[in-house]
Amino acid sequence: MTTVMMRGIPTIITTMTDVSATRAALRLQSWLSPSFPVGAYSYSHGVEAAIEAGLVTDAETLRDWIEGLVRFGSGASDAILLSEAWRHASAGDAEALGALTEFATALIPTAELRLEATAQGTAFVKTVSAAWGDIEQMVLPPAPPLPVAYGAVTAVAGIGLELAGPLYLQAFVHNIVSAAVRAVPLGQTDGQRVIAALEACVDEVWHAAEGRGTEDIGMAALMAEWSSMQHEAMDGRLFRS
């Protein structure tokens, strides 16, 4: 166990031995489930405003929208942040993990997206710490963005990055599709077609991000950021972002 003091906050990183493949899969299925209490169902990542503006109207436009997010927006950057968090936590480098948390938070372009990332990250760490007794208490800096929290926790749990990473990106796709199914509205089968069509994209983006560092982060999904800013002023919203 490595314990350091960072700005007066005790940060504890405990590196565990690898869990079995079955245990890892079971934990990830729980942690990335829509029923896991991080509030994912209440966020749309700006897609609600894109629907309101007529930019997302059906399965095809939804697939294009999400692919842009995964390849050029928050999906691609989150993959790098997750990988870095996993590596820092595996090495017991709490100082680097704290700096990464600050960097990841500074990258978030809008107030609602910051709420989405940090509220879910905080809830994720709290719930895993409370429910999984064999994972020792890990205190991250306050309000860690979800990809940082998830990357650190999966490392501490002994779950390999090659499994934890792409499943996180796939869950990101699932959450946006779920929001669109409710808001377009879109049929459940059409939603699953979008998820299936984006499998190759998730695979490509994850493998491209896996060996990169924060110096490679760059986003070019301006309409997604515009949609998030527009969402902040919408009346009668279904989602918090």
Describe the structure.
61% of the residues lie in helices and 4% in strands. The protein is built from eleven helices and two strands. Strand 1 (2-6) and strand 2 form a beta hairpin. It is globular. The model is unreliable at 1-17 (pLDDT under 50). The chain has a two-stranded antiparallel ribbon. It has a single domain (44-228), classed as Urease accessory protein UreF. It is mainly α and 241 residues long.
The largest sheet has its strands arranged as 1-2
Q: What is the count of DSSP helices, taking H or I runs of 4+ residues? A: 11
Which CATH first-tier class would you pick?
Answer: Mainly Alpha
Question: How many strand elements?
Answer: 2
What CATH architecture label applies?
A: Orthogonal Bundle
- In the predicted model, the low-confidence regions spanning at least 5 consecutive residues are 1-17
CATH topology: Urease accessory protein UreF
Shape descriptor: globular
Radius of gyration: 17 Å
Q: What's the overall average pLDDT, rounded?
A: 89
Oligomer: single chain
| Backbone structural class | mainly alpha
Distance between the termini: 37 Å
SSE topology string:
EEHHHHHHHHHHH
**Any idea what the CATH superfamily is called?**
Urease accessory protein UreF
The overall number of domains is 1
Proportion of residues in extended strands: under 5%
Largest sheet: 2 strands, antiparallel
The helical percent reads 55-70%
